Every structure is written in structure tokens, then in C-alpha cells.
């Protein structure tokens, strides 16, 4: 459509420039110049500005363009004046509703029919007038049908997008339903088995107290019961993540750090920076499990080392960093006095099962992880985009 407008503009200008009388600045020639400007300017505006115009502006452009063409046709009988008028009719039907397009189209068609018949010198005035009217009518009909086809195409694309969204929503609903079913099964199995284990351990503790067994054995039984209850709590967190309902990661980390201080004998400090935000349950669980693995590694390879856990919220991401200061006598690489070997380098790049699982969890939720030496110690940094 826009290329056609440029063609019409050029052809109208050339035809008017070669007609008689030619455009000028005085008398009748000035009127021709103004009529030519009335044709060229609306065509240029319609071709250059592809944004949707108000309907009133389109009607005005069509009337000015068609009026200029009619004036040229009356003053320059040899010019192709039906071209700008038919272009005005086509423009109206291409950009307006059919009922509204008739407002400029009908008077312009009648006007160019009368003008063509009046200035005809061939003796076939009626036929030339009818031909001009038919040209306007045919172009208007073609543009009207093209506009309707374009609108139907846009509606089809909109319906297709809505159908795609609906299918995606159905898929998400099916996934949520399946995850809820799995969560329910896990909850039933784990809750029953771990609860039964906790009851058995409580019974063993009472028997140990009654029979006066070794205090260390009683302590182990008590701690086993506590670990069972903590395991049940962790299982419930995993089930909550499957159901799409999870506690804030900061609260989970507070409980985790407290347990690690007690069970792993690690001097851990936890700090939270930035404005807390709600994360997706999968992201919460990934950060929590990553912190669990990192603290376990710190206790294993740098026992007694001062360890820091920093949860940082920024506008771009949520970052969790776990750092330790390394063994006092040197050597993750050489092992310590307890004979525990240092982790091989590949364990920190994905070779170890725990760290590989940590990396997979973080990457599954769109995050990234970096683990490596930091001074005498080691740092694990996990980042989840906001």
C-alpha cells in the first residue's frame, strides 16, 4: 500500500507538470500548483506515517487528496487526474470502516465522474465518466476486502495466541496437579515411616534411661531422635516446594545454621543484606540444599573453621555465599591431622556427587554457581536471577 502511494504521488506530479496549463505562481497556474500540493502532501503523509491515524484525520486526508485531484482534472484535461481521486477512495476503504469510508468515497467518485465527463473532448464523455467511477469503485472494493482480510488475519493470530496461552495454562495446571499428587504420596510415606522411627527411638531412649545404659549411648539415641524429627521437617519442606508453598529461604537458613552450629561444631555466622523478596519454591529449595551441602563440606574439609553464610538480595539477583577460612595448619590440599583427605579439584567443578547435585539444582532454576579457593579457605556462591 505504501509503495503504491509513492507511485501515485510521482505519477500525479509528473502528469501535472507536463499538463496544460502548467503549475505556476499566478492566476490559474497558481490554482494548479495549490491543487497539486493538495494531492502530493496527503499522499506523502499517508506513505511516511504508518501509525494508525484517527478516523477523522483519514477522512480529511482523503477529501483533500480527492479534491485536489478533481481541481487538477477540471483545469488540466489531459492530466491523469483520476489517479489521485481513485487513490483517495482506496485510502479511505483501506483504513476506515466501510460505512465511514463511504462518506469521502461517494462524493469524490461523483465529483470525478462529473469532472471527467465535462472536460472530455473525445465525444465519449459518458463512457469516460463511468470508467472513472468504476475505477474508484473497484479500487475501493479491493482495499475494503484487503482490510477485512487483514483484520481476520489479526483476529486469527490473536485467537492462536490465546489458544497457546490456554494450552500452557493447562500444562501448568496438569504439572501442578501431578506435583501435588507426588507431594501427597511422599508426605504419606515419609511422615509415616519417620514418625514411626521417632516413636521407636523415643522408646529406646526411655529403655536406656530405665536400664541405666552408658550415658554416651543415651546421648546418641536422643540425638538420633532429634535428627529423625529434623529429617521429617526437611521432608515437609520438600513436599511444600512440590506443592508450590514454601517458607522464606532466610527463615530456613536460620534454622539450618543453628543445627550446623550444634551438630557440626562450626562457628557459623549468618547475615542477610538487601530487601528480602519472595522466591519460587524451587529456587528456595535449591538455595537451601546448596547451603546444606556447602556447610557439610566445610565441616568435613575444614573442621572448626570460622564459616560465614551471606544471603544478599539485589535488584538483579538473590545470592547466597558460604565461605570458610580453611584449616589452621594449611592444607585442604594435603589433608589435616585427622587424616581426612582434601577434596579433589574436580569435586569443586562438578565431579563430586553432592556438589554436582547442587550445581544441577541451581542451574535447573536458571541460576549459576561458583565454587573455588578464596585465600586459605573455600567459597561457594550461588546466584538466582530476580
Care to describe what's here?
This protein is of the alpha+beta class and 386 residues long. 67% of the residues lie in helices and 10% in strands. The protein contains 10 helices and 5 strands. The chain has helices spanning 2-18, 27-48, 55-75, 82-95, 98-119, 125-211, 215-243, 249-263, 281-301, 353-364, and strands spanning 268-273, 307-313, 317-324, 368-374, 377-385. It has a 5-stranded mixed sheet with strand order 1-2-3-5-4. The two termini are 45 Å apart.
Can you give me a brief rundown of this structure?
The chain has 386 residues and is of the alpha+beta class. It is built from ten helices and five strands.
Mean pLDDT across every amino acid position: 79
The portion of residues assigned to helices is 55-70%
Strand order of the largest sheet: 1-2-3-5-4
Contiguous uncertain segments of 5+ residues: 328-351
Total number of beta strands: 5
> Span between N and C termini?
45 Å
Shape: rod-shaped
Rg computed from alpha carbons, rounded to a whole number of angstroms: 41 Å
Counting H and I runs of at least 4 residues, what is the number of helices?
10
The largest pleated sheet is described as: 5 strands, mixed
Keywords:
386 residues; alpha+beta; 5-stranded mixed sheet; 10 helices; 67% helix
Amino acid at each position: 500500500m505504501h509503495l503504491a502511494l509513492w507511485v501515485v504521488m510521482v505519477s500525479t506530479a509528473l502528469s501535472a507538470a507536463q499538463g496544460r496549463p502548467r503549475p505556476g505562481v499566478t492566476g490559474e497556474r497558481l490554482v494548479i500548483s495549490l491543487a497539486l500540493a493538495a494531492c502530493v502532501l496527503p499522499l506523502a503523509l499517508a506513505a511516511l506515517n504508518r501509525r494508525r491515524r484517527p478516523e477523522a484525520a483519514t477522512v480529511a486526508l482523503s477529501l483533500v487528496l480527492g479534491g485536489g485531484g478533481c481541481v487538477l482534472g477540471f483545469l488540466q484535461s489531459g492530466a491523469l487526474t483520476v489517479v489521485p481521486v481513485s487513490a483517495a477512495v482506496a485510502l479511505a476503504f483501506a483504513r476506515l470502516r466501510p460505512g465511514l469510508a463511504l462518506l469521502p468515497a461517494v462524493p469524490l467518485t461523483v465529483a470525478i465522474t462529473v469532472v471527467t465527463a465535462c472536460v472530455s473532448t473525445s465525444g465519449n464523455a459518458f463512457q469516460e465518466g463511468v470508467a472513472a467511477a468504476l475505477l474508484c469503485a473497484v479500487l475501493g472494493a479491493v482495499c475494503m476486502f484487503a482490510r477485512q482480510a487483514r483484520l481476520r488475519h489479526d483476529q486469527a493470530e490473536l485467537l492462536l495466541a490465546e489458544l497457546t496461552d490456554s494450552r500452557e495454562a493447562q500444562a501448568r495446571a496438569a504439572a501442578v496437579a501431578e506435583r501435588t499428587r507426588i507431594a501427597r504420596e511422599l508426605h504419606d510415606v515419609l511422615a509415616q515411616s519417620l514418625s514411626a522411627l521417632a516413636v521407636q527411638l523415643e522408646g529406646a531412649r526411655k529403655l536406656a534411661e530405665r536400664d541405666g545404659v552408658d550415658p554416651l549411648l543415651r546421648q546418641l539415641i536422643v540425638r538420633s531422635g532429634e535428627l529423625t524429627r529434623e529429617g521429617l521437617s526437611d521432608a515437609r519442606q520438600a513436599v511444600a516446594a512440590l506443592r508450590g508453598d514454601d517458607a522464606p529461604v532466610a527463615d530456613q537458613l536460620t534454622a539450618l545454621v543453628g543445627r550446623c552450629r550444634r551438630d557440626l561444631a562450626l562457628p557459623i555466622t549468618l547475615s542477610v543484606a538487601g530487601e528480602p523478596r519472595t522466591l519460587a519454591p524451587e529456587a528456595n529449595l535449591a538455595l537451601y540444599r546448596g547451603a546444606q551441602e556447602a556447610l557439610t563440606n566445610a565441616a568435613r574439609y575444614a573442621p572448626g573453621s570460622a564459616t560465614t553464610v551471606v544471603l544478599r538480595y539485589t535488584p538483579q539477583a538473590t545470592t547466597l555465599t558460604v565461605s570458610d577460612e580453611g584449616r589452621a595448619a594449611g592444607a585442604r590440599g594435603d589433608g589435616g591431622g585427622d587424616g581426612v583427605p582434601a577434596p579433589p579439584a574436580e569435586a569443586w567443578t562438578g565431579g563430586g556427587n553432592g556438589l554436582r547435585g547442587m550445581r544441577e539444582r541451581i542451574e535447573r532454576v536458571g541460576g549459576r554457581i561458583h565454587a573455588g579457593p578464596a585465600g586459605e579457605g573455600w567459597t561457594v556462591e550461588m546466584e538466582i536471577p530476580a
